[in-house]
Amino acid sequence: METVYRRCLLFNAGLIPYTDALLWQRSLLKERILQPSLEDVLILLEHPPVYTLGQGSNLNFLKFDPDNCKFDVHRVERGGEVTYHCPGQVVGYPILNLQYYCKDLHWYLRQLEEVLIRVLAVYGLTGDRLPGFTGVWLESRKVAAIGIKVSRWITMHGFAFNVCPDMAGFKQIIPCGIADKPVASLAEWIPGITCEEVRVNIADCFAEVFGVELVETMKD
């Protein structure tokens, strides 16, 4: 008997300001709370330079005055501490109704990690989890951060995968509040790698891990 996969709309959205993407996610979430049968969504994009803080983030992890910063700083409803987004980093925002998968937030976080571990495996690299932490590490350096929000079992926010960004912005924070574990980018292992290439592998691995049929879609 042929397996029937749940459809998931894939938006390859390019470079989008953080606030625009946040409003887009909130709109998709609201629609799916009202109509739980709507298709799931995976948004893959990049952001101009921006710092974001989770709802309980500690300002002590900033090395600058948030009221006097040349880049935008936003406190949002996701979990986790401060992180940095910029071009060269693939950000993924899955809007999934976990009632169709598994109603367990730890399961969901591990699945997101698994997606990125499989992407690294495409390049012959071994991604790791660290006990007690969320994210993906490569040779003890963090290459992917994860922070989520779930309402009525519908997810928003997601992951940020450092492909080939300018890492200088990370020096202005203690990324994810972890002072003793440095961050890194995939380009340090694979010079010349591009976000366009990695996006394809993220989409493929996401479809495998979550068992969905991705349907590439354009934003209205």
From TrEMBL:
The active site is at C176. This is Octanoyltransferase. It comes from the Bacteria. It is found in: Cytoplasm. Signal peptide: none annotated. Pfam families: LplA-B_cat. It comes from Nodularia spumigena UHCC 0060. Belongs to the LipB family. Its main location: cytoplasm. Residues 36-214 form the BPL/LPL catalytic domain. Catalyzes the transfer of endogenously produced octanoic acid from octanoyl-acyl-carrier-protein onto the lipoyl domains of lipoate-dependent enzymes. Lipoyl-ACP can also act as a substrate although octanoyl-ACP is likely to be the physiological substrate.
